[in-house]
Amino acid sequence: MDWTKYTKVKVIERSYKIFLKEFSNDESLLVISKNSYNRYLKNILENEKIFWKGHIFWINKKVDINQIYENQKNYINKKIRNIIALGGGTTIDTA
Question: What is the DSSP string of 54-84?
């Protein structure tokens, strides 16, 4: 089978605070690991009093493709327009 799929990717560089405020809505899915959450996001959310209103996909240390497919079913009827990866390679690949 020969197929090609292009995914539009927009790289945004700005402070977490501005970014979280702009994309905190029901149309956003944040892909993050527990380690990245504890390292980066937890303090920002607590100190800046920001509440994330979007969805969160938590990544374990090893990502199983079946985990991604199962969670994809949960979001299929939601109008997700933004998938945001916060973290390293596994997080980016999963998003």
Answer: SEEEEE-SS--HHHHHHHHHHHTTS---EEE
Say whether pTM exceeds 0.85. no
Nearest CA to 32 out of 62, 11, 56, 16 is that of 56
pLDDT tens by residue, 15-60? 777 888 888 999 999 999 888 888 888 888 888 788 889 998 888 7
| CA dist list (Å): 88 to 19, 35, 40, 77 | 17, 10, 12, 28
The C-alpha atoms of residue 17 and residue 25 are separated, in whole angstroms, by 14
Count of residues for the chain?
Answer: 95
Contact criterion met (CB below 8 Å) for 63 and 9: no
Do residues 32 and 91 make contact, with C-beta atoms less than 8 angstroms apart? Answer: yes
